[in-house]
Amino acid sequence: MFQLTDKVAFVTGASQGIGESIARTLAEAGAKVVLAARNQEKLAAVLAGIEAAGGQALAVGMDIADAAQVKAGFQQALERFGRLDILVNNAGITRDALSMRMKIEDWDSVIRTNLTGAHLAIQQAVPSMLRQRWGRIINISSVVAQMGNPGQANYVAAKAGLIGLTKSIALELASRHITANVVAPGFIATEMTQALPEKTVEQLSARIPLGRLGTPADVAAAVLFLASQEAGYITGHVLSVNGGMYMA
Questions:
Q1: SS3 track for the chain
Q2: For residue 216, what are the contacts with CB-CB under 8 A and spacing of at least 6?
Q3: 19-73 tens-digit pLDDT
Q4: Nearest-CA neighbor of 234 among 223, 218, 220, 221?
Q5: pLDDT digits over 173-230, tens only?
């Protein structure tokens, strides 16, 4: 179940955290994985790990906010593997501040990376999917897109925008057997949360009915399902991976 043998997956923000876990999980399921991120040193480490486990991967240095770099990155992927079946838009940044104090450049950079970057990647990925009449587009949003978060108006707007983008793409591409879905993680234990004081982590966990932070593997498992053949009748859906923190 949930095998991706002979499929090619393109994962943005794949150098660490959730993106790295997604890339490794898809590779373990048999997919050939294109790893895209700005940090090429970290990408090389992820690539080495996948290859050491017997998988196939390609590392592409790419800034998702730069249209020319996005186009070049997808060209590299197609030159190497000849096709593209799965796109996971995971790359994202934060530039937090209260809305009334937020600098316009911080607003613009988050929207450009987290939302426009996903749109640019979709534009590059879809032609291959259309030719083969099969594809999976999975956008990584956030629980805060569903419930809001003070000090993150730019991030919340971008992640909420991803949900709207996904639903529109799902409608546009359904007739070609291409699905588009969202995974919306809650609080996930990553390098960033590891730096938080233990008391803060306890307070966060107390807000979650399942009583713990999620893991990157929890998110990756949801992505694997949506990327699979078994999820072929699901499109335009938001799959919440938040331990019950927000129920819609």
A1: CCCCCCCEEEEECCCCHHHHHHHHHHHHCCCEEEEEECCHHHHHHHHHHHHHCCCCEEEEECCCCCHHHHHHHHHHHHHHHCCCCEEEECCCCCCCECHHHCCHHHHHHHHHHHHHHHHHHHHHHHHHHHHHCCEEEEEECCCHHHHCCCCEHHHHHHHHHHHHHHHHHHHHHHHHCEEEEEEEECCECCHHHHCCCHHHHHHHHHCCCCCCCECHHHHHHHHHHHHCHHHCCCCCCEEEECCCCCCC
A2: 17, 18, 20, 21, 22, 188, 189, 190
A3: 999 999 999 999 999 999 999 999 999 999 999 999 999 999 999 999 999 999 9
A4: 223
A5: 999 999 999 999 999 998 767 777 888 788 889 999 999 999 999 999 999 999 999 9
- Report helix angle 117-132 to 153-173, nearest 10: 20
Catalytic residue among 78, 155, 178, 245: 155
Task: Say which residue the tokens 């331990």 belong to.
Answer: 243
Q: How many CA atoms lie within 13 A of 195 on its CB side?
A: 2
Q: Is the pTM of this model over 0.90?
A: yes
Question: 75 and 58 in contact (C-beta within 8 Å)?
Answer: no
Question: Residue 214 is which amino acid?
Answer: G
Per the annotation, the verdict on 233 as an active-site residue is no
